[in-house]
Specification:
Radius of gyration: 17 Å
Number of strands: 7
Largest sheet: 4 strands, mixed
Helix content: 25-40%
CATH topology: NE0471 N-terminal domain-like
């Protein structure tokens, strides 16, 4: 008897629950404020700002994984995946370091 691969895939998705990060330093949601700036909310509802403008506008970014984020359209594609801020091209940020700075100062200035 033939099987339908799409039906199998759908059924598997129903069985496996979605991963919900629970560590307080995992990112729950983000909002792009402007090029280089994100508002961030963590699992424990800590909120603050990630400011990458200094990094993206300086020379230190050249040759790093973050250099492509100088393109505003790419920066705007920021998303949360498994509690981490990510961009296309395997670019991401350490949520624990971001959390510590935002919890202490309300902002994490990267640069």
């Amino acid at each position: 008897m033939p099987t339908n691969a799409a039906a199998e895939a759908d059924r598997a998705a129903e069985v496996v629950p979605a991963v919900e990060p629970r560590a307080p330093w995992r990112v729950r949601e983000i909002r792009v404020v402007e090029h280089g700036v994100l508002n961030v909310r963590f699992v424990d509802d800590t909120e603050g700002t990630l400011d990458m403008r200094s990094l993206l506008n300086g020379d230190k970014v050249i040759g790093t994984v973050f250099e492509p984020l100088r393109d505003a359209s790419l920066f705007a594609q920021a998303a949360v995946h498994l509690g981490t801020v990510e961009w296309p091209g395997e670019i991401d940020l350490a949520p624990d370091a971001m959390y510590d700075e935002i919890r202490a100062h309300g902002v994490w200035v990267v640069g």
